[in-house]
Every structure is written in C-alpha cells, then in structure tokens.
Specification:
With 443 residues, the chain is mainly alpha-helical. The chain has 20 helices and seven strands. The chain folds into three domains: 114 residues, Fumarate Reductase Iron-sulfur Protein, Chain B, domain 2, CATH 1.10.1060; 164 residues, no CATH class; 121 residues, Rossmann fold (3-Layer(aba) Sandwich). The protein has a four-stranded parallel β-sheet. A three-stranded parallel β-sheet has the order 5-6-7. The protein binds iron/sulfur cluster (2 copies). The site of one iron/sulfur cluster has 15 residues, from helix 4, helix 6 and helix 7.
C-alpha cells in the first residue's frame, strides 16, 4: 500500500483542467456544520483508532494509513486551506479516499470521541467528484444509473428475458415457480444487484424458488429494481439520491408493503440509512419499509415456512463474513447467526466478529473499480484472509456481493482453499421441497 502514488489512475475527467476553487468552497461550506467542525478540532492525535483500521494493520502499520491521518490530510487540510487546493492535492486525496478507506466505519467505534472518519471521507469523495477526479469505472457505472436506472445499463426487455429464462431453468425440478413482474399490491418488491441478472442469474431463480416454497406475495419491478448505489461511492450525491428515489417511487407506485433487498451490503446502507437524506427526506426515514434478505430468511426458518432437511445440513466447517453494511452499519449481525444453526453443523465465528468484524477489503466501491485496483484490495484484504484461515472453515457464508467476490479472490490470492456461498444457494440446496412444489411423477 505504501506504493500508492506510483501509479497513474484513470479519472472521470483526465483533461487536467484547473480546480474550480469556488465549487470546492461551496461544498466545504455546505458541510461546515457543528459536527464536522467538532470532529476536526477535537482529534487529539491519540492514535487509538489506528489498530482498528484493517488497511493500516494489513499494510505494515504505515502511519499514513491511520484513520486520523486520512481525514486530517484530506478534508481537514481542505478546510485549513479554505478550499484553495490544486489538482495535485486532490489527486492525493483521491488515493486516500478511494484506495485507503472503504468507509467501513470501524474506526469510529474505537475513537474515544466517536469521530466519524467515513463521513469525512465521503465529503472528500464529493469534492474530488465535483472536479472530475472520480474513478473512471464508478463514473461509467453512475452514468448507466442516470440513463437507465441500473448501474449495468440493462434494458427492461433483457431483465424480463432473464427472469423468464430463470423460471424455465427450474421448471424440470419444481412446480409453481414464477417471477411476477410489476405486480401491484404485493408484500415485497424484490430488488437486486445488477450483477445478478448479468453474472449470477441463478441467484434470481434461488430467490424465486424460496418465495414459491414460502408461498410469498412478491414482485420484481421493471424499474427501480437496482438496490445498489454506485453513485454514492463515486461521491455523486445528487445522482445517488436519484438512484434511491427510483426504488422508493416504484415501491410506492406498486403499493408494495416492503422493499426487499437482496444479499447486498451497501444497498441496505443506502436504502435505509443514507438514501433518505440523499433523496431529500429530511426525517431520514425511507418512505416505504425496507427489509434485508437475512431478515426475511430468518423469519421463514423461524416460522417454519421454509424447512431444512437435517440430512442436508452442511457438515464442513463454515464461517460467516459480516458485511460492514449489514452488521456494523446495519445492525443485522444476529439474524445471520440465527439462520446458521438451521443450515450448518460446524459454525466457527471469526475473531473479531459481529459489529467489530473487519471489512473484507472489497467495500466502499473498490470492487467495481476494476482490475487495476485489485492489488490494493488484496493487500488490505490480508487481514480478512488471516481471519478466515484461523477459523479452519472451508465455506464462508456472506450476504453481500462485494464480500462474496472479495472472499473468493482472497481465497485464490492467499490459497485459503475455501469458497463463498450465499444464504439463498444453501437454503435452496438443503430445504425440504414442499408438496405444492413437487412435480407430478407421471409427467
Ligand atoms: S472507515 Fe474503515 S477503512 Fe476507513 S479509516 Fe476507518 S477503519 Fe479504516
Ligand atoms: S482515536 Fe479519535 S481522537 Fe484519537 S487519533 Fe483517532 S480520530 Fe483522533
């Protein structure tokens, strides 16, 4: 990580144009509330936050990677200079804000003053973004969000085709699996990560099988179905607000009881905690109730709507990767731990875990930033690789696409010999198929 700065990264705007200082000042002024002022002035440089940051620990405890250094040398310096910064300075901020901090918020728990470094890094990202100093891939995905409502730019027909294809794929195994499209008045409007229709379409069929088994009332919308928010990670708050509003509006239009979030971490953070503010709801509350997939799966198992075949419980040792935005920032760490006894016999928790767990290294938008950034993900992910290895687990369950891909990459990089699995996949493989889904043996 100390090699940061040796590589030239591609920005959204590579023209090298001078910084619009007035624009930087305007963003600084808009954020110049009591909270930021206090955080910037109260930091005593005690260093207690350093050991809490996985980037710092995994990269030889380089003091430039401590949380306090990161915010003082980005946003703190911008305030000190009253916004009078140049492009070279913002390019250094870029490296700190996107390569050295995943905005996991772990350090805030260890700072005696509760200084929220992630929030200050988010403002730093907004300022860099205002000058076109945004990771090119995040800008590219954000543009798709703006034009199509989903970050991969998937047209409606393609989404519907994928859903139909997924239903056909399971017809030979189950009866009554459907994917209702744009159906009003259902209990759940199901929203997914665009990686699912493109790379993991079977995840959509797993969800449909589980809904069929539980006899659930649900629908897949043709717009507002992308629950992720890459503009939020790009520092584009305006577009991030639009993205989240697309989902809220569609749920209201369809009169859905809940917005259901697939196994994705930052989607939950965006939809429940940050989205309402970005979308202009001053009370900070989403206009429609939001549920994460781990909450629903736990309810199904607890209430007997899904039953697991004891013979199919996983025998190999498993562990659980707490996604930062599901556990620490979402408060859902116990839901997963209540699901696991239903599906596995040998659970070995990582240490530390729950809200104290370390980021996998793939959060904060670095995963979709592309292969140039993989060395940074791997360097910082070493701590997670060590945590996994220490459990002796062969399977890592995680309800987050970023964690899922990062854990698989870490397994390859550090020869962990493990595989990542989602709850959906395990539940479909191990559930007792209810009678109403069994195929007619004569057909
Ligand atoms: S938010 Fe996470 S990655 Fe960023 S400085 Fe704090 S602990 Fe490190
Ligand atoms: S623990 Fe808090 S006060 Fe101490 S250096 Fe870190 S941010 Fe500053």
């Amino acid at each position: 990580m100390s090699k940061v700065g040796e590589k030239k990264f591609e920005f959204e705007d590579d023209t090298g144009k001078p910084v619009d200082v007035d624009q930087v000042r305007a963003i600084l002024k808009a954020n110049d509330g009591a909270r930021i002022k206090t955080w910037l002035s109260i930091c005593s440089r005690c260093g207690l936050c350093a050991e809490s940051c996985f980037v710092y620990v995994a990269n030889d405890r380089d003091p430039r990677l401590s949380p306090a250094y990161k915010f003082r040398h980005t946003l703190g310096e911008m305030y000190r200079r009253k916004g009078n910064v140049d492009r070279a300075f913002l390019e250094k901020c870029y490296q700190i804000a996107w390569l050295q901090c995943t905005m996991c918020k772990r350090c805030s728990m260890y700072c005696p003053f509760g200084i929220d470094v992630a929030t200050m890094i988010a403002i730093t990202r907004s300022i860099c973004h205002s000058q076109g100093i945004t990771p090119k891939q995040l800008a590219f995905f954000s543009d798709h969000c703006d034009k199509t409502g989903n970050h991969m730019g998937i047209p409606v027909e393609e989404l519907v085709d994928t859903c139909e294809w997924m239903v056909e794929e399971v017809e030979d195994d189950y009866k009554g699996v459907t994917i209702p499209i744009d159906q009003p008045d259902t209990k759940y409007m199901y929203t997914v990560n665009p990686r699912e229709p493109v790379y993991y379409p079977q995840d959509i069929s797993y969800a449909a099988i589980i809904f069929a088994a539980a006899k659930e009332s649900w629908t897949m919308p043709t717009f507002g179905w992308d629950c992720t928010n890459l503009p939020m990670f790009a520092g584009n708050r305006k577009l991030a607000g639009k993205q989240v509003k697309n989902v809220y509006n569609k749920a209201e239009e369809l009169n859905a009881g809940y917005i259901l979030i697939t196994e994705c971490g930052h989607a939950y953070r965006s939809m429940v905690f940050e989205g309402p503010y970005m979308a202009g709801y001053p009370d900070g509350m989403p206009p429609v109730k939001v549920k994460h997939y781990v909450q629903l799966m736990y309810e199904y198992l607890r209430d007997g709507r899904i039953q697991i075949d004891p013979a199919k419980k996983i025998k190999e040792p498993i562990t659980y990767q707490d996604p930062c935005n599901v556990s620490r920032n979402g408060g859902l760490w116990e839901h997963a731990r209540k699901i696991i006894p239903y599906i596995a016999e040998d659970f070995r928790d990582m240490a530390p875990n729950r809200e104290h767990n370390h980021c996998c290294g793939g959060g904060g938008g670095i995963m979709p930033m592309g292969p140039d950034y993989k060395p940074y993900r791997m360097a910082s992910g070493k701590l997670k690789a060590d945590q996994i290895r220490q459990t002796g687990a062969k399977i890592v369950i995680t309800p987050c696409h970023n964690c899922f891909d990062q854990v698989n990459d870490l397994s390859e990089e550090f020869e962990l010999g493990i595989k990542a699995l989602s709850f959906k996949e395990i539940i479909v493989e191990s559930m007792i198929v209810p009678d109403h889904m069994k195929l007619d043996p004569e057909k």
